[in-house]
Amino acid sequence: MKKALVLLSGGPDSAALVHWANEKGYDVSTLNFNLGDSKSKARVHAAESISKRITDSAYYVDLKTTKNISPSVLVTLAADYALKINADKLFYGIHKNDTVNKEGISYFNNTLSETISLKAGKNFHVEAPFLYYSQSEVLNLGEYLDTDFSETWSCKNRTDSHCGYCDSCVERIKHFSEAGVTDDTNYHLEKTLFFYR
Ligand SMILES: [Zn+2]
């Protein structure tokens, strides 16, 4: 069985990706980076819940003291971690609404894959399986694969329940609504209040 490491932020997209990799038959491990931002504490907790459903192999790396790490550096660090646990692939959950430069992301993934394969002396792949999926398609796929989105985390304001009004919560509400996917999130502020205020 091929072993894959999934970069799991604890948000809905990477949660769907964990289920996708499992469905594809990979021996899945997960990796969560604690970046020390406003979402981190709740996201580590979310990553724990999500991982437990699929795998006993969950890794947590504390990057709280390292400031302003770019996504490409995080992917590179994760790829290095994937090699350490002897994985054949690294998956991460970027989708087409996250970037205007899909070709650039593909090029980066291919270049990093080649570099690491050379270094490791084996075939290693860094892949973004959702790169050409829309946000709605990712959520729909996640729902189809029985992803429990209520365990995922987006809020920047609170750590016990989603506030319902920070920009991350507003985006979350919008994305689930646009995808037509049931949103079981426990919002502190009722959604109706948000929409009609
Ligand atoms: Zn919020």
TrEMBL record:
Keywords: ATP-binding, Ligase, Metal-binding, Nucleotide-binding, Zinc. It catalyses: 7-carboxy-7-carbaguanine + NH4(+) + 2 ATP = 7-cyano-7-carbaguanine + 2 AMP + 2 diphosphate + 2 H(+). It holds the Pfam family QueC. SUPFAM superfamilies: Adenine nucleotide alpha hydrolases-like (SSF52402). Gene3D superfamilies: HUPs. Its EC number is 6.3.4.20. The keyword Metal-binding applies. Pathway: Purine metabolism; 7-cyano-7-deazaguanine biosynthesis. Belongs to the QueC family. This is 7-cyano-7-deazaguanine synthase. It comes from Corticicoccus populi.
